[in-house]
Amino acid sequence: MVRRAAIVGAGQTRFGALDAGPRELLRTAVAQAFASVDRGADRASVDSAFLATLGFGGWQIGNSAAVLAEESGVAGVPTTRVENACASGGFALRAAVDAVGSGSAELVLVAGVEKMTDIPNARRRYWLGVSGDTEWERLAGLTFAGVYGLIASRYLAEHHLGPEALTAVAVKNHENGALNPNAHFRKVVKAEEVAAAPRVADPLGLYDCCPVSDGAAALLVAPAEHARRFTDAPVYVEGVGAASDYLAVQERADLTRFAASRRAADQAFRSGALERSAVSFLEVHDCFTIGELLALEDLGFAPPGEAARMTLAGETRRDARLPVNPDGGLKAKGHPIGATGVGQAYEAFCQLRGSAGARQVPGAERALAHNVGGAGATATVTIFGVG
Ligand code: COA
Questions:
Q1: Which residues, at least 6 apart from 372, have a Cβ–Cβ distance to it below 8 Å?
Q2: Is 329 left (phi over 0), alpha (psi -120 to 50) or beta?
Q3: Please, which of 61, 101, 281, 288 could form a disulfide with 323 given CB 3.0 to 4.6 Å?
């Protein structure tokens, strides 16, 4: 029988342009995760580990799982690197849930890390670009901002919208990020500033893009039935879904719907036997503002075009009906590729334990995290709860 999993400890460094190198970032996040466990978890009790990274920012492209073993003091246990571009973290958590579920592990360390700010722009563009399609996208000069810019243009045209809904996502997520001490940007921006910012890939401007960030996050995952050996406040993994799609967007039937997100969401809700209405807040993959609108629709929280209206009406603000990205999202909290999905789970852990401070979503009981690799090529959806 498959065992349910629970998160019993979690940690995260600040995301941003940081002085620390990737090893130090990993050490810090892992130490925080252990420190957050009330009792009974030391490094010797970890029997499996997964590292989410695209390659430490190009610094350690191969065999980086061994670095996690070294830096977290778990050398000796099987340690596996999970690389699914920006969805690496979500997939690493899923691997841990499977390891616990199958009975092959009793305490799993999941960590994500990236060090992106200390490499020159051209090299970084290449290193990020290789996660997209090579023949039809990268070699044609298309960056991720370029692909999402095309998707945004199509979305706005299909639904007869101006860029205001994209702007509203940026303003909201910057507002949330300003309350998060771990966020890359703690700066509130006005709609006029977003609209007047330099264009990156029309209709996306500077404030429609996630930044280039350093950071790390870590989780400790145990079987739900033993979770209270470690903590009085476990956060249960109630549903998990994952899927993939064609890598190149031109191969897909639809530019404004990510089939991988849809499939992953349906699977997660089915596996947890949960309704959408049971979710208190969402952490979605807003690498570009359009990503948040697509996510609301793909995850089943809004019909096509309706995510724009909901956002403009303020329904996704932290204190509203369906808070989205209370930590600031990738947009303001930052996007250190491999750390992002693990950081979303860290946010769920903090919120559901009521320890999210100024950005706390009142009464949060169930959270959904949505992590996307590239422009919709892979996706995970994880539902967390305290029940
Ligand atoms: N949002 C808001 N402000 C940003 C920003 C962002 N995404 N990126 C940079 N800034 C700010 C900086 O803080 C800096 O502000 P300052 O002058 O007040 O110090 C200013 O803009 C210039 O920063 P710089 O680093 O020189 O910007 P840039 O022009 O080199 O890079 C982007 C801007 C948007 C191109 C870059 O952040 C980017 O490539 N983002 C996307 C990353 C990506 O594709 N990730 C994978 C997603 S699938």
A1: 86, 87, 258, 260, 261, 285, 287, 291, 295, 378, 379
A2: left
A3: 281
- Tell whether the torsion through CA atoms of 1, 353, 37 and 16 is positive or negative: positive
How far is the centre of ligand 1, averaged over its atoms, from the C-alpha of 214 (Å)? 13
Distance 210 CA to ligand 1 centre (A): 7
Nearest to 150 by CA among 86, 113, 204: 204
Q: pLDDT digit string (tens) for 171-208?
A: 999 999 999 999 999 999 999 999 999 999 999 999 99
Residue 222 sits in a domain of what CATH number?
3.40.47.10
Please check whether residue 159 lies inside any domain of the structure. no
User: Which among 174, 184, 335, 370 is annotated as catalytic?
Assistant: 335
Which residue type occupies 38?
D
Does 210 qualify as catalytic in the annotation? no
Is 209 a residue of the active site?
no
Domain span holding position 362: 5-119+211-385
Q: The pTM is what?
A: 0.98
When divided into structural domains, the chain yields a total of 1
Whether 314 is covered by a domain: the verdict is yes
Which residues have C-beta atoms less than 6 Å from ligand 1?
Answer: 86, 128, 144-145, 185, 200, 206-207, 209-212, 287, 335
